[in-house]
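hey can u check if this looks right to u? its 228 residues, i copy pasted from the old doc so theres a chance i mangled smth
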Amino acid sequence: MLKLILVIAGLSLLGVGLTASLKAPQETWQDKVSIESRANKAKAEGKTNLTIPGPLVDYPGMGMNVDDALKKYSAVVAEVVESNAYIGDADVITTAYKFRIVEAVSKKDAIFCDMCPPLRDASARLHSVLSNEFILELSGGTILVNGVEVTMFNASGLKFESGKRYLLFLSYTPGGMARLAAGPSGVFRVRDDEESIEPVGNPARPIPSQVAVRFSNKLSKFKEVAKY
């Protein structure tokens, strides 16, 4: 009789445990990899800084040559006037950069990219965009989450510095949002002499290598061809 009572009690406790586990919220994969959960875990371990890799991005047009880029996309010299980093998706830190156009070297109408994700409107993240400005969103940045400084690096190495000038191949809408023509291949830093340019991405890619060979990485030589 005693054994029967113990068995029944054990089954009852097992049933309670199973019910509790079923009612308990299940942690999803996204919960585990979210920026907030990673920051909370780091904080629990006594850390105040956390660095995580950014997502790999397959930019369309990476194999595009410079002539195609000039036919289809705008080429502008622009400088960063404002930036803001935030959690764009649960597991991705995004930075919105606002650029002021210093010179529209060659302007083309915005083109539709059926292989690209739709552009999000990030205008609320920054001050109002003027007619000579545009916003470019990139993965990566540094934010503070529950007392932990979380840094995500852009997997392509793209990062823009405030006040620095860049030559960019891009398509931008009347609303002020922009998309890079060929990812990092279409981005060049304008050096302090305001004449020399250097690629941000892989210099062996078609656009950077052709800019080096044809224009000797000189902004003035590039402008002579780009304006036609």
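The chain has one domain: 52-226.
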